[in-house]
Amino acid sequence: MSGYLIDTDRIIDVSHGVPEATHTLALLSTDGVAISLITYGELYEGAHFSTNRTKALADLRGFLEGKVLLPLTPTIMETFAVIRGGLLRQLRQQIGDMDILIAATALEHDLTLLTRNLRDFQHVPALRLYRSG
After folding, report:
1. Cα–Cα distance for residue pair 70/53, rounded to 1 Å
2. Is the whole-model pTM more than 0.85?
3. What is the 3-class SS of the chain, one letter each residue?
4. How far apart are CA 103 and CA 121, in angstroms?
5. Which of 21, 96, 106, 115 could form a disulfide with 13 if both were Cys (CB 3.0 to 4.6 A apart)?
């Protein structure tokens, strides 16, 4: 698979109508976009605990239509372990496990990660990050 893995923050931006995020996602969609199971969980949590749960869950289902949802696999978990161990032991960097799982998913599927969280993700070796502008 080639294309992009969309991080949770960018999907939230799209759902809030941020023009740059909406434009970027539309532009990149022609190359293929996917979502990690981790991102799905984060989005579902936000929708479930929203003040208007029914609408939020319907909006989430609508957004996900036509998008590829990538599950966790043993290989992704192995990549997660290597990244996490390397960040902690070699680089003395710590980023959240959910972010590492998202990065491992992008690496396993050879996808470029679309995120605003460059501060954390830039520490993941070999991870391609989409930089707009």
Report:
1. 24
2. yes
3. CCCEEECHHHHHHHHCCCHHHHHHHHHHHCCCEEEEHHHHHHHHHHHHCCCCHHHHHHHHHHHHCCCEEECCCHHHHHHHHHHHHHHHHCCCCCCCHHHHHHHHHHHHCCCEEECCCHHHHCCCCCCCECCCC
4. 7
5. 21
For 30-64, the pLDDT digits (tens) are 889 999 999 999 999 999 999 999 999 999 999 99
Lookup result for tokens 């029914």: 54
- Tally of structural domains, the chain: 1
Sign of the CA dihedral with 93 first, then 96, 97, and 103 last: negative
Q: In which domain, by residue range, is 61 found?
A: 4-121
Question: 111 is written with which tokens?
Answer: 């996808």
Whether 55 maps to a domain, the answer reads yes
